Amino acid sequence: MRTLDKLAGLVCVWLTACSGQQNIPANSTRVADPRKETTLPISPMLERTAATNKVEKSESEWRRVLAPEQYRVLRQKGTEKPFTGQYWRHHEQGRYCCAGCGQELFVSETKFDSGCGWPSFFAPSVRSAIATREDRSYGMIRTEVLCSRCGGHLGHVFNDGPPPTGLRYCINSVALRFEPRPAASPAAGTKKTDPAQSP
Ligand SMILES: [Zn+2]
Questions:
Q1: What is the pLDDT of residue 39?
Q2: 3-state secondary structure labels for all residues of 133-162
Q3: Enclosing H/E stretch for 97
Q4: Does residue 10 lie in a domain region?
Q5: Are the C-beta atoms of residues 143 and 159 closer than 8 Å to each other?
Q6: What confidence score (pLDDT) does residue 199 get?
Q7: What is the pLDDT of residue 154?
Q8: Distance from Cα 176 to the centre of ligand 1, integer Å
Q9: How far is the CA of 83 from the centre of ligand 1 (A)?
Q10: Among 17, 87, 127, 167, who pairs with 161 as Cys (CB 3.0-4.6 Å)?
Q11: For position 160, which CATH number holds?
């Protein structure tokens, strides 16, 4: 038993000595961790994208991404020849988006046959999708219609349209990109009658 006590005492002294040696360098580890000051960088490009929904490009960028006729109409306020565009006699169900930025501008339910040779609508999809501006070019006073997101020239609006608005949005086909509406699935078409609405 005594031998064991002596061994235990020796081990204890040895451990204390070892820990004592380690305490010396340990005193020098009180320096603050510099990594705590690190902050994540924030991309200025992401902030700008989140702050505005507008699409802004230089004229050289627009010229690169648009076909020549699209550029002439959208960016240089040109007009396509009547009865030549892709959509003046187009009757599919769907929506018409801006060829410049993709924003939805008109839907097929508001399209009507005006006989003028350009696609005509009596209302935009939502009022905020378009902007208007007085146009005094060619000796006339007209109201120009532009895409509210990219500022692209779309056409003009006149007061000789059908009800319910009495307006005719006369739009260049080349300024539009049509997206057909997907066919309704059978499940979506079997809408049950609401008992509360029945007589
Ligand atoms: Zn646009």
A1: 38
A2: EEECHHHCCEEEEEECCCCCEEEEEECCCC
A3: strand 94-98
A4: no
A5: no
A6: 54
A7: 98
A8: 9
A9: 23
A10: 167
A11: 2.170.150.20
Number of domains in the chain: 1
Q: Which of 97, 98, 150, 170 is catalytic?
A: 170
Matching residue, tokens 């006339």: 140
Residue 117 lies in a domain: yes
Structure-token pair, residue 92: 């599919």
pLDDT of residue 184: 74
Residues with CB under 5 A from ligand 1 (ion): 98, 100-101, 103, 147, 149-150, 152
pTM over 0.70: no
DSSP string, 155-193: EEEES---TTTT-EEEE-GGGEEEEEPPPPPHHHH-PPP
Q: Ligand 1 centroid vs 85 CA: distance in angstroms?
A: 18
Domain span at 138? 79-180
Q: Count CA within 13 A, CB hemisphere, residue 94.
A: 14
Which residue stretches of the chain have pLDDT < 50? 1-4, 6-51, 189-193, 195
Ligand 1 centroid–CA 117 distance in Å is 22
CA distance 76 to 60: 13
Whether residue 186 is contained in a domain is answered as no
Please give the distance, rounded to the nearest whole angstrom, from the Cα atom of residue 73 to the centre of ligand 1. Answer: 12
* Residue 25 domain-assigned (yes or no): no
Contact 169, 120 (CB under 8 A): yes
What is the per-residue pLDDT for 63? 97
**Residue 170 annotated in active site:** yes
- pLDDT at residue 195, rounded to an integer: 46
